[in-house]
Amino acid sequence: MLPTPTTSSSRRSPNLVISIPGTRQPAPFRPHFKPSGKLLFRYLPWVVGCTILLWLFILRPDNPPFRGGPGEGFRVPHYHPHSRPGPPFTRQAWRPPQPGAGGDGGHEHPPPEDDHTGFKWKWGSGGASNKAKPQPQVGIWDTRAEKVKEAFVHAFEGYKRHAGGYDELLPIVGGKVNNFNGWGVTLYDALDTMWIMGLHDMFRDALETVAKADFYLKPDDYAPFFETTIRYLGGLLSAYALSGEPVLLTRADDLGRMLLPAFDSPSGFPMFAVNTKTGQTRKGWAGDSLWAEGLSNQMEYKYLAHITGREEYYNKTDHVMQRMTQISLTNGLFPTRWDTASGTPTNQHYSVGAFADSAYEYMLKQWLLTGRSEPHALELYLNSTNAIIEHLLHLTPKRKLLYVTDLLSESPTHRLEHLSCFLPGLFALGVQTLPEDILPAKTRDRHLWAAQGLAETCWVTYADTKTGLGPDEVTMEAWPPKKRPSAPPPTTTTPTADSTTTEMTPHLKDRAFWSSQSDEDIGGRWLDHVERWEKEGRPGRVPPGAKTVPKETDPQKREWKSLKDSYLLRPETIESFYILWKTTGEVKWRERGWTVFEAIERHAKTKYGYASITNVDQVPPQWKDEMPSYFLAETLKYLYLLFIDDDIIPFEYWVFNTEAHPLPIFDWAPWERQAYGLNTTTTSTTAAASTTTPNDELPNKS
Description:
single chain, mainly alpha, 3-stranded antiparallel β-sheet, 21 helices, 22 strands, about 10% strand
């Protein structure tokens, strides 16, 4: 049966009322919205959520950037500097001597009150004051920092795409190589650089690799202890300190325990390599241990001991430091090779290059890192730096280039390694962070002059070449031998029964005589020239070796010759530029860093990344198919920090390890001080007086 069709009448409501227009009274107003509890609960979560988002990204006072670079609102989640009672450096900020401080013939370069970034410079404070708000516009230096960030992204994306999971990229062919344990060293070395540059998405993607790591090695494979500590362990610890990601601490603790058997030698001096699964160790290619390899793990292991509470980390690494305080040195310098079994030196080669560099570096830096709690490390640094100035610093005869070289027994080799160009940065860091009662004025001046002069020479080895990049090793023109004196040295009285006068040592007699002679007669040792300059009243207000010098593009007229022509993407010169810029405020170090970066972009950039070049005086250069992990960990990081206007990693709160991984300065807890026998109520400062002359100003003992 079909349904009954609906008619128009059946659709009408029984209450339908038809009204004639104009005859019906208007109905009373009834609002369509009726407040009810159900409606209130429907909209309340939206209102609360929008309010929270508005506060987080617009109204919040510090206004942190969202997944952006580390600008004004950059915060370190894990590290809280205000939790400390105050900055570790409570002395008044040291100000470098203004006349001629830049080595430019006596002209002063005071920082501007307004450098168009909104910052007011603060001498010796590690950069700009955070009291003034930066202007919203992006300055030229922030733009340059962005260029460095782009270079990093190009390099890491090339590695990730073509060599992910392997240690390093082959940047010419887009290949891959395992040369540091096969765990992906480039990723570990680059973690903190990603965070510092604000590449947080890239950083979080990399965490997946870290989370799955087990640091496996085959039974017959060994991890080099030194390189694994500074690159892998240092990278993990720094990334954890910056980001607070727990998995980074877990992996750092895992790796720290796996590497610990390296210390199980008869002397406690670490072995060259260790198997992370079996704990077996072996010696290296040199047989003996290199001094840098034994003394460049204290920062990593002491910080790891602090954040994990594992006492064995501290005890193992500090045992080596204690042995250094017991060694009797003939000239204040540490030999480069040591017997692992006995823990004693085996040669008379003294250097700040490849075999020793970071060991000198860690003396000062571990003292800073541990809140100035270890006076033995400080005393070793002060004694060593004075000995370096005394014995290893020399001048060339023409441009008066100041350089640091090696000693074989007592004979200088006049070789300068690119690796040694870290030294000016170390001197500058010491001048910046050591108070006046530890580093007296006269010694402080010499350390600053040495920093400026050495960095100038490192720059010259770049500026002189056709590519604008520095060779890996050079030999410097030696000063002509001293002429025989036309008169004997000043006579002194020999002790007798009737005389109490003590005869001067032959060395001091020689210096007293030669300090009054002409340039041709004084010899090439820098300290002799400085002492004569001081005796003459400091003419020009800038000592020899600390002045700005012109470049020399003609290889035949240079005062140096390449022993190794290659540029290996090394960071040491840039590192010193960065520290000198932060501690002196001289813009020339930034400008020189930019010139170096432009040369890298012009000559080292490949389709897949960046390559070392084989000859710095050949244009176009020939590439070497390698991109070392330290290029991303150090070179590009220091360039970025050199250019960025914000003081992202202030020296008051952070210390870089030798692979440029920043670690936060910390204070030991009371139980740690007791467990490790730390007594910070007194600090040894006897070494602060320079050992180079008996007339040096003595410090006040604390």
